[in-house]
Structures are given as structure tokens and as C-alpha cells.
Amino acid sequence: MAVMMIREAIASTLHHEMERDPNIIILGEDIVGGNGTAGGTEAIGGIWGLTGGLFAKFGPNRVIDTPISESCIVGAAAGAALAGKRAIAELMFADFVGVCLDQLYNQIAKFRYMFGGKTKCPVTVRIIYGAGLNAAAQHSQAVYSMLTAIPGLKVVMPTTPADAKGLLTSAIRGDDPVMFFEHKAMYGEKGEVPDGEYMLPFGHARMVREGRDATIVTCGQLVNFAAGAADKLAKDGISCDVIDLRTTSPLDEEAILDSVELTGHLIIADESPPRCGLASDIAGLAASKAFAALRAPVEMVTAPHSPVPFARELERAYLPSAGTIEAAVRKSLAYR
Amino acid sequence: MQFTDKELIQAYRRMKTIREFEERLHLEIATGEIAGFTHLYSGQEAVAVGICELLTNDDYIVSTHRGHGHCIAKGCDVKGMMKEIYGRRDGLCHGKGGSMHIADIGVGMLGANGIVGAGAPLALGAGVAAKANGKGQVSVAFSGDGACNQGTTFEAMNMAVVLKVPVIFAFENNHYSEHTGDKYAVGGKDMASRAAGFGMLARKADGCDFFACHDVVSEVIRHCREGRGPAAVEFDTERFFGHFEGDPQRYRGPGEVERLRETRDCLKNFRAAVLKRKQLDAAALDAVDREVLALIEAAVQEARAAPPPDASEVLQDVYITY
User: Which end of chain A is more exposed for a tag (fewer CB within 10 A), N or C?
Assistant: First the structure.
């Protein structure tokens, strides 16, 4: 076990997987950086610093520094995958999903199905997402709900360095397209990472806290907030299950339903806006499959139905917090 | 370029197969037996065959919504295609794709595509793979005068030049993007000049003349196989049918289609050229015609008789594992 940050776990996994499999290529804007400048090639190594050193080790045929051209980053990853490669594409900001949505939504998600199962499309799209850094409306969004709704895509969100390694390895080695969401405010999270080969299967949630009074289902950045809320509630004798979904497609329905059967109180914390989102999806799941177990209305703690604001005060008001999650648990438990 | 008799017969057979496949579909679709939206390729055969005769199964093509011709030219199974268009279980894509999504990865056909302009980035990616493989493979992006106006096509051309990958951008100007003329929709009127503006080798060819297509494509494919970066060809070609089957084509001039079929038919042009040069005799071409008609007839009859998919297959192949 080594202690490292999420960013280090992802970077080392990229290196390890590209060493292991010469068929892997990686594409993105500035993933090498510095090309055509006085500073020279690799002056950057990715604006998030995760892809440094790949170019020197694997060369220009495998580490492909692209123009700003998201449709072609994802499209070229998809085309290369159809032609037999295993591709990793980086979208510097999740908001740019809007630029290349056709390639995600109409192309890679559908190839296997449309072509009658006669192809695979092993593409991992690394998507850097989320609010908390005052990056405003076009550089802060949590678009995982939108992509979770698309059949054919898998959607993955690690929240610890170990999970980052295990889930990214599974994403890269798997043969289905994976939307791999990395929260930009979590890159510095530290934790122990297993040495050697480490893969985590998709669709298996992580129990972050165990309790009997309420179930908090969450993912991404809000996992830590939910854990903080649970720890605070524990001081008042209220114990909560905190479930980190890890993957929203596939969804670990069993983990959610088993917990709700025990607690009867479901609180969902979701960084995406409320309409047609992850929270309402899971609330619907509970309503249809755990109705008899529910002892209170499902509480949904989400971002509001607004763009992500810029000013610190506004962004704080926008994002769910440990406080709003804690309040939702207390509200659920106080029902009747 | 010198052709053997065998090569000439093969090129003619492919073009004729495309033509008869489409002409027959035109009739069968009118009966209501075939579901969905179908876009026919009649009139453009010399482009698909002029290119694909120069490719092998190790080369890639990415097609369009008007993809039947590209599929046949690249070697997709004609009966499997017909069954797919009829929505049959043992169609080329098990009835999951239909006319607009026929693919056969094994022969390098990476898919027809229902999204105009989506193909060029995919062909770029196949070119990236080809370059990494280092075996002289090439990738072809078929686009029309509609897709040539999509930003994705521009992006793919730029990135192909930046990355110096072996992609051929084949612009088939059939003069109609759906129901709108190229004179209106293509700013600058000249796709080859656009491509040249991105810094790549760009050529033009008469898309109704197989030999002209083949000559120009030979040059650009050699350029790509030698690792000298991408290239583009703008083909001046004609669309004999509407945008989709059922299109009333009110945008056509009086007698336009009849005139095109009389003067701009690549099959007639081919036949006239090889007879004039005494490279083939009429009997040999007539024999191909009969064989192709028999193949299409068999394809239709087999497709009609083939079983549909089972409703239980709707969830099959969404994922490999889930």
C-alpha cells in the first residue's frame, strides 16, 4: 500500500496501463502541451498535470496532443477503437461534453448495438467535472446525470485514490465505452492505494459509513460531505449508511434497496441539478421497489435548477454541503 | 492506368450491383414492405467503386446516411445488407441498425452513419490507428456536399493535417444537401479549395467517370500510404433519386433526372468507354448484368422470407457486460 493523491493514482494508472498494453492510445488537448511554442514539447503535461511523462515514454503515435477540437478528440478515439485500438480521451472540462455530445451520444454509445454486436468500442473518456473552484457556469458542471441517461455508456466516479486506480483500470481494460468522471476539487484527496494489479468491478457501491437510522446515497464530491454529515449526526446518536455509488451506470440497486429496507429513510445527495437527474432517478427506484419500507418522503439534496454561479458566496449556496445533507437527514427522521 | 479484363469486370460488377440494389429498393420501398428511412446511392457508383477498388480489407472507410454504395464497394455481403434493410434477424446487423447503420468491421467498413458530419472524426481516428500500426493502411471519410459544411468535418481536416495521418476526405458533391442546392449552401462553392486551405493535397474528379475517379484516387492514396499526410478529393457526381425514398423532389428542374440519367450515368459511361477502347465486349458486360440481376432478385426473395428478430433481442448488445 502506498499513500497517494487521486491525481497521482490516475497518472500512475495511465502509465501502467499504457506500458502493459501497447495497443492503448491517449488523446486530448494539451495532454502533452507546449507543441509549437518556445517552451517546447511537454512544457505542460496536461493542465491537470496528470499526463506528464506519457509522451516521452510512449511517443507521438500513442500520446496524441490534439488541437482544441472535442468532437474530434472523442470521434478519433471512437474511430481508432473501431479500427482495433483501445483509446483514452481527455475532456479538460466536463462542460465540453456539450461540444462533442454527438460523438458520445450518437456514436460511441450506439456502435455495438446498431452494428448488431459485431464490434466493440473500448473508449475511456476522462471527464474533469464539478463545482467548488469558482470556475463558473461553463467550467463547473456535474453532467454525469445526463450521460447516465444514455444507454450504451457506463458512468464511473471515483472518490478515493484506491477507487481511482481500481475503476480506471477496469474502465481501460473493459470493452464498453466508459465516461470516467474525475472531480477537479478532489484531485488532492489522499489515501492508501493497493500495490500491483487492482481492478474494481462496476455496479458495486462502497459503504462509506454504516448505520441503521437513515440511508444517504451519494457519489463524487458529495461523498465526503455526506460522511461529514453522518459523523456529526453520530454524535447525536443517529447512525447512517453512507453509500458511495462509484458508478451510476451500472447502478448498484441492491445496495440502495437493502439499506432502505433496513432504515426506511432515504436521503440522496447529488451535485447535478434536480430535474431528470440522478437523485430523482434513485427516488423513483425507491418508490417503485422499496415503497413499503419507506417511512418518510425521500429527501433529495441537489444543486438547484440553475447554472453554476461564479461568486464564492453564490457557489457555496449552489453546492450541497455537509450541512444541507445533515438537515435533510434530520427532516426525514422528524417526519410524523 | 492499365486495367486487366478481370479488374474491369470486377469494377463494373460492383457498380452494377450498387445500381441494381438501389433501383430494386426504390421499387420495393414503394410497396410499403420496408420500414424506416432509406437514402439511395444511384448515380454515385463510380465514386465508391473508384475508391474502394484501390483499398484492401485492412483499409477503413466511414460512410454516410447514403451508405449502401460504400458498403457494397467495400465488400459487405449483399444478401446480408438486404436482410438488414428488411429488418431481419440474420441481417448484417441483426436488424438492429437498418439502412443507415450498416457496418462490417471485418472488411474495414466502419459504419454508415445517420448523423451528417459525424463520419470525418471517426475516419480521422481510424487514420490515427493506421498511422500507429505503421503498415501503410489508409482511412477514407465519405462526406457529401451537406457534411462538408459541418464544423466536425473542418475539425477533422485540420487535425488530420496536424497529426499527419493517412485519411482521404472524399467529398461527393451530388449537388443536393437533402433538398438544398450546393450553390446556396456551400460557401465559396469549392470543397477542394477548402481542403487545400487546411494544408492538404486536394484534387477534383468527375464522379460520373470511373476511370477519372480511379486515376485521381490512385494518386492521393499513394500519397497517404507513403506517410505524407491526408488528402481530399471533390467528386462532381449526381443523385438520381431524392434525398430519401418518398421525397417528392419538388426542387428538381423539369426533366432534370431524365437528363442526368441520359448524360451523367457512370455505368453508361463505363460501358461506352470500354467498348470504344475494345477492352471488353458487350456480351461480357451483358453477362455481368444478368448475374447481378439474379443476385439482387435472390437477395430480395431471401430477405422477404427471412425471420424477423425476436422481441427478446431488444436488450442484447447494448453492452458487452453490464
Answer: C
